User: What shape does this take?
Amino acid sequence: MTIEERLVSYIADTWLEGDPDGLDEDTPLIELNIVDSPGMFELVHHLQFEYRITVPLREVTPDNFQSVKTIATLIVRLQGEGKDWL
Assistant: This one.
């Protein structure tokens, strides 16, 4: 399962009563009020636990959470940055 598929599943389960119909990697999550500001922080907590990354506060912006695609891009970038510390 790809990062995008896992995110769609999580978002559907958490905010759409488990129904992923109409939700894809380009769906505007904030614009459609699927994820609001408090929801972004809930999502950050999930990302940090699920993907074992640290999401710095400066990265918690609407631009990084506007769609599944932008969230997946953030995850991959932060995973790559974490490898620099090893």
Notes: The mean pLDDT is 93. The chain has three helices and no strands. The first helix runs from residue 3 to 15.
